[in-house]
# Entry
Amino acid sequence: MRRLTWLPPILACLGTVAAFFLAPTVDATQTADRLLPFFGAAAAVMVALFVGLGQIQRSPSPRSGRALRFLHAPTFASLLVGTVAAIFGAIPSLPDWTYRYLFAITIGGALYGLVSAFLAFSATIAGQISAAKAQRARTIRGDRSSDEV
# Structure
């Protein structure tokens, strides 16, 4: 897990570029109103993720040290930028050319946050499993002096 700290920014950059080129067109025949559900849902998911990851960051447990390496300032900054882009994308009166950029920024911010959250939760689970295995090994050996409650 330690070597995967590079993964969120790389995937976010690739996702942003791909989303820019694959973004739906907005013009006179295809209005921005059809993108409102996407931008609204993306903003809601990113706000929920921002709050959840912030709670993990602010109240770490003794076994969450591995997870905290994935939850740092760029994670929260990308979620914030993606959320702001999604909120602006929900405004149907913007110029048509802006929606391609807002779509790409929203995807990039969400991807960075989701990948970071996945890696943080995976690291936490891996830490819990290794602690449980160590506890079991101590129990089998009969070493009860270092038991944790």
The radius of gyration is 20 Å. The chain has one domain: 33-140. Residues 33-140 form one domain.
